[in-house]
Amino acid sequence: MQASDLPAILAIQRLCYPAHLIEPAAALQSRRQRAPGHCWVARRGGQVLGYLFSHPWQRASLPKLGQDLPALPPAPDCLFLHDLAVHPDGRGQKVAEQLLHASYRPARAAGLRHGRLVAVEGADAFWARHGYRRQSEAASGLCGYGEQAVLMDCLL
């Protein structure tokens, strides 16, 4: 992912999410700046078809939605998948799976063995197909992610 991809990413975000989940450009850019080796786009020709923001993190806390990412923790224990979205033109082409596999390689190389995410808008079924399982802890920390938000983990 490059800084120049941000306009296309913001357009995909608007196509994929309701207004309460749209994040400001600065919040997304902070994730790319803090963890450039964990943020990906999928392209066909010159078009960005999907994106994934992820970063090393600690399972004991959740990064805040819509806010700049603070410094990465000194001893991360998971890969936090912050946002994965695919443009309607890219659906049905395994774009999401390609982005996931791209993110897992550097995470494993860094010694991370767990993935963590907050599934929104009913996406928990998608994530379950990719090995993620619902977690019950930290439910109060999900505020801001929406009423249907589900905390999920997996082994990478």
Q: Could you state the CATH homologous superfamily?
A: Gcn5-related N-acetyltransferase (GNAT)
**Inertia-based shape:** globular
Separation of the first and last Cα atoms: 21 Å
CATH class descriptor name: Alpha Beta
Helix content: 25-40%
Write out the strand line-up for the largest beta sheet, numbering strands in chain order: 1-2-3-4-6-5
CATH topology: Aminopeptidase
Tally of individual domains: 1
Q: Averaged pLDDT, please?
A: 93
Structural class: alpha+beta
How many helical elements? 4
Strand content: 25-35%
Major sheet summary line: 6 strands, mixed
User: Would you count the extended β strands for me?
Assistant: 6
Order of helices and strands: HHEEEHEHEE
Cα-atom Rg, whole angstroms? 14 Å
Report low-confidence residues grouped into runs of 5 or more: none
**What is the CATH architecture annotation?**
3-Layer(aba) Sandwich
SSE layout and pairing:
Layout: H1 6-16, H2 25-34, E1 39-44, E2 47-57, E3 78-86, H3 95-109, E4 114-119, H4 124-129, E5 133-134, E6 150-155
Parallel strand pairs: 3-4
Antiparallel strand pairs: 1-2, 2-3, 4-6, 5-6
